[in-house]
Amino acid sequence: MSPENPKPQILFLDAYDSFSNNITSLLTILLSAEVSVLPIDFPISDSDFASELSRYDAVICGPGPGNPYNQNDVGLINRVWEYDIPVLGICLGFQSLVVRFGGKVDRVKGGGLHGMVRAVEFDNEKEDIFKGVGKYKATLYHSLCGELGRDNRELKGLAWLEGEQKLLMGVRHEIKPFWGVQYHPESVCTGVEGNKVIENWWEEARRWNEERGRKVVTGEKKLAGAATRRSLLSLLGGTEEEERKDWWEEVEIGAVLNSVTVPLARGAQVPDVVEAVETEGGERIVLDSANAAPATSRADVRGRYSIVAAGLDEALRIEHHTGDEYAMIRVKSGKGLSVNLSQQVPVARYGGIWGLIAKFQEARRQDVDDGSNTPFVGGFMGYITYEQGLADIGVPLDQPRPHHRPDVCLAWVTKSIVVDHLLGVVHVQHLRSTGSMDDTWMEKTARKLISLQNTQRRPSFNLRKDPLSPRSRRLSKSTSVQTPMTKEYEDKVRICQEYIAAGESYELCLTDQTTITCAISDKPLANANHPVTPTQTQQRKKRRSSSSASLAPPSSWSLYKLLRTRQPAPFASYLRLGEATLVSASPERFLTYDRSGLCSMRPMKGTVRKSEAVSTLEQAEKILHVPKEEAENLMIVDLVRHDLHAICGAGNVTVPELLKVEEYQSVFQMITVVEGQLPNYGEKRGYTGLDVLAVSLPPGSMTGAPKKRSCEILKEIEGHKERSLYSGVVGYMCASGRGDWSVTIRSLFRWDDEQVVVDGEEGEEKQEVWRIGAGGAVTILSTPDGEREEMFTKLAGPLRVFGEAR
Ligand SMILES: C=C(O[C@@H]1C=C(C(=O)O)C=C[C@H]1O)C(=O)O
Ligand SMILES: NC(=O)CC[C@H](N)C(=O)O
Predict the structure, then answer these.
(1) Domain Glutamine amidotransferase, which positions (predicted)?
(2) 797 lines ligand 1 (CB under 6 A)
(3) Would the CB of 144 count as within 6 Å of ligand 2?
(4) Which residues lie closer than 8 Å to 284 by C-beta, 6 or more apart?
(5) Distance, CA of 82 to CA of 80 (rounded, Å)
(6) If you write DSSP's letter for every residue of 681-731 in order, what string do you get?
(7) H or E, element range at 641
(8) Ligand 2 and 16: CB distance under 6 A
(9) From the CB of 167, is ligand 2 less than 6 Å away?
(10) Per-residue pLDDT for 548 more than 70?
(11) Residues with Cβ < 8 Å from 117, sequence gap 6 or more?
(12) Is this complex's ipTM strictly greater than 0.90?
């Protein structure tokens, strides 16, 4: 510390862990420190590293995947021990310290203690970092552990794990200013007494510097960066008033909200509303709180609103294929005429695809009163794939990719219908730009919705009238289903556990895909971006097929209607957008943000199938409140806190609900709510919910922790198959700043360009390909058959519905 720099200056060496931002937040708050971050693979010479270190009072070396003997895993951490500067190593950092000064690091018995919360034992009378600290439990995230060896004269053990396995939990160097802890002080489940250890360490570090007259060099630019990201908008060059050059930059600028509210017809469900106003066969986005009706489910989460996009054929669309240097901006039609405008826009101009989207949205921002009863007045609706998320965290995709589909597809929706299930009303809304000629849509739509009231209500899904009648079941002979192989899946679980035992990952969300090929259900879209040509055509052996032209298979919309009644879910959705069709019964919210900048994430981890033996919440709680399941959830909670901290910054993330069990139609799930407040929300060029979305994909509950290394490992184990829409997100970002995104799970999807050719009775026949992804988190305590069963449980819902439909 120096007079010019009253705040402690701390350097954090980041080993690409998914908990790093939680540590920097803890240090910033607890020590009122200024924390700067340098990744462990930052290329830097010894002399530059020495100069960089001179700018700090102390260093913290972070946790991370891998092991301390592998130089690539520890990088700069292994080099810091050569300098005279106070250091605290955490987990991997601790292990590096042990190895550097004569100790050994080996695997712990049983393969790892990830997410376990255990009591730490120490002598709190002796002078050192544990002095005066009361008893506490700490979260562990390690598979490896340090041992000092009998004649180690350099390091001294300070703390151990209570119980049989007396694993080393804390050390210090006898002479040098180096300390280390094996546990994770920043975890939400580490007791607050643990904070005293950090404060004591800082006191020791400060004293060491003072005694030696070591002063921080000030006034020179640090190579390390800030702990939080800058906002997407602040990274954009140019001014707001900058001349708009391209046609698309003018689209829907200065629009004004018009809306009319009508009562929701009694007994009408979201599909009835959709069918009353839109004709089938076109593009469609329906974000459906499918369990809103009290009778459908006892799940705790019940969405209040459902949002339907209208007039999609005229909506501007931003599409981006991950790996391309450009985004496609398209408008298919306008004022009732086909225009087919499209333009390739280089994303580098905006710092990437998220910058482009942020800028587009900011120019169309609507100020809506926070007390407003509509979550969405217009704005982006669409999907983002898992692969876009991979690219965002620096996991390269295999090239060449087997297709050229959009990984980000967002439509700027200006006509929308919002169902408020709580108040029993429907808002018909039009965000009308000045040039718009269409002033009758709202009235016409409202009239249709009112007349819905007068029509005889029938259940939203009627097996007799819908094309899913028993007659059409004959089609099932031409449908083929390929589920994952039982043994192969179990082997993959074992491989995951081998990676975990080696310290490479703490938890891996293993998944696989089921493919279904069947007769083509949806008519091709008029004005499709790409003609429907089978790109993945395969010839199959001639086999009997009973398909008949007169028996049309059920459309994806019919399939959706059946799924939403069989598996009512708070985040259900139906999308037919461009080449993608998605039929989803997702129970999992990824991220929502409101008009005051409050962001909330809801990771779900821990699943138990409903059965006769487990039919009540109390029974499920007994099964899920066990160390294995809680650890699974906790790891993702700490990961999600890290993702939120990256934008919300130190001290702005809380966990209002931890490890809560909820009931759904066929499963019980354990969830946690993590919240973050965007700092200085509403400031010009400040943060928006999009910043959080962009930094936290792919959803941590679908990857495991640490995210990056886990995704790399999963890519190998899952055989380099793209997960595509599955494990991605679907949702909206309102022009008013609000947004809500669900994790795409418990769903079926298909792409128009994926077709196979089979030999039917009447010659060659094209078939479409549906995919269902399913999986679960593998930890060291998982059993291969338990994981296999969990995957099949999750697969069963959508698959059964498909079976019923065909
Ligand atoms: C992987 C899936 O689900 C994810 C994994 C869960 C788990 O491991 O318990 C729970 C919810 C999802 O985050 C899936 O549904 O396919
Ligand atoms: N959290 C960590 O730093 C883990 C360190 C090491 N990879 C282990 O598993 O033991």
Answers:
(1) 12-201
(2) no
(3) yes
(4) 274, 278, 308, 309, 312, 557, 574, 575, 576, 577
(5) 5
(6) TTSTT---HHHHHHHHPSPGGGTEESHHHHHHHHHHHTTT---TTTTSEEE
(7) helix 627-648
(8) no
(9) no
(10) no
(11) 137, 138, 139, 140, 189, 190, 634
(12) yes
Cα 444 to Cα 278, 414, 591, distances in angstroms: 12, 16, 34
With a 6 A CB cut-off, is 159 part of the ligand 2 pocket?
no
Strands (E), 191-336: 225-226, 256-263, 284-288, 305-310, 316-320, 326-334
Reported as type and span, the H/E element at residue 337 is strand 337-346
Mutate to test the pocket of ligand 1, among 665, 794, 795, 799 (most ligand atoms within 8 A of CB): 794
Using CA positions, which residue lies closest to atom 3 of ligand 1?
776
Select from 506, 642, 713 the residue to mutate for testing ligand 2; criterion: most ligand atoms less than 8 Å from CB: 506
Q: Is 295 helix (H, G, I), strand (E, B) or coil?
A: coil
The predicted structure's pLDDT at residue 239? 56
Residue in the structure block whose two tokens are 């008009």: 595
Distance 563 CA to ligand 1 centre (A): 18
> How far, in Å, is the centroid of ligand 1 from the Cα of 605?
6
65 Cβ closer than 6 Å to some ligand 2 atom: yes
Residue 796, ligand 1, Cβ within 6 A:
no
Using the predicted structure, report yes or no on whether residue 461 has a pLDDT greater than 60: no
Tokens 């821990």 found at: 606
Quote the tokens at residue 661: 């069990």
Q: At what angle do helices 617-624 and 627-648 cross, to 10 degrees?
A: 80
Q: Write out pLDDT tens, residues 765-783.
A: 899 999 999 999 999 999 9
User: How does pLDDT run across 473-530, given as a tens digit for each residue?
Assistant: 334 567 889 999 999 999 999 999 999 999 999 999 999 999 999 988 888 776 555 5
For residue 736, pLDDT beyond 90:
yes
Residue owning the nearest CA to atom 5 of ligand 2: 92
- Secondary structure string (H, E, C) spanning 148-188: CCCCCCCEEEEEEECCCCCCEEEEEECCCCEEEECCECCCC
- Single-letter code of the amino acid located at 358: A
Evaluate whether 166 touches 114 at the Cβ level (below 8 Å): no
Query: What's the CA-to-centroid distance between 729 and ligand 1, angstroms?
Result: 14
pLDDT at residue 208 above 90? Answer: yes
- Which pair of tokens denotes residue 374? 């509509």
Q: What residues pair up with 157 in beta bridges, in sequence order?
A: 171
DSSP three-state, residue 296:
coil
What pLDDT is attached to residue 439? 75
Residue 327: the pLDDT is 98
**Is the CB of 146 within 6 Å of ligand 2?**
no
The average pLDDT across 106-121 equals: 95
What digits encode the pLDDT tens for the residues 352-408?
999 999 999 999 999 987 677 899 999 999 999 999 999 999 999 999 999 999 999
By most ligand atoms within 8 Å of CB, the mutation choice from 591, 607, 624 for ligand 1 is 607
Q: Is 745 in the pocket of ligand 1 (CB under 6 A)?
A: yes
- Interhelix angle 353-362/689-696, nearest 10 degrees: 160
709 CA from centroid of ligand 2 (Å): 12
546: pLDDT strictly greater than 90 = no
Closest-lying ligand 2 atom to the alpha carbon of residue 144: 10
Domains parsed from the chain with CATH numbers: 9-226 (3.40.50.880)
pLDDT of residue 549: 37
